[in-house]
Amino acid sequence: MALGLIVVEVCERNVLASHSLEDFEAAYPEVAVLRTDCLAMCHLCRAAPYAMVDMERVYAKATAQCLDRIKTCIEAEIATFKEK
């Protein structure tokens, strides 16, 4: 796990946890992926793939779409850091 500026948190019980989210760490050194037992969003966790990206909920109906949205959030955060 990297010590990233951007934190991606995933509940171990969510469908998204079965995917290789560590690929985000490999692609973006600014990212750290944290897998936790529970993010206390059970209603969302049961309904859709989701993750928290710097405390912002990112979700979609399909896993691939959610992964794309996470990537978009990461890239937006990186762009914000580069502007400063």
Question: Could you please describe the fold and organization of this structure?
Answer:
This protein is an alpha+beta fold. The protein has one domain. Helix content is 39%, strand content 24%. The protein has three helices and four strands, in the order βαβαββα. It has helices at residues 22-27, 42-47, 63-83; strands at 6-11, 31-36, 50-53, 56-59. The chain has a four-stranded mixed beta sheet. It is globular. The chain starts with 5 loop residues before the first strand and ends with a helix. The model has no long low-confidence stretch (mean pLDDT 88).
Question: What's the short version?
Answer:
The chain is of the alpha+beta class and 84 residues long. The protein contains 3 helices and 4 strands, in the order E-H-E-H-E-E-H. Helix 1 links the parallel strand 1 and strand 2.
Strand order of the largest sheet: 2-1-3-4
The H-and-E topology, N to C, reads as: EHEHEEH
Shape: globular
Give the termini distance in whole angstroms.
25 Å
Q: Secondary-structure blueprint of this entry?
A:
Elements: E1 6-11, H1 22-27, E2 31-36, H2 42-47, E3 50-53, E4 56-59, H3 63-83
Parallel strand pairs: 1-2
Antiparallel strand pairs: 1-3, 3-4
Offer a few descriptive terms.
84 residues; alpha+beta; 39% helix
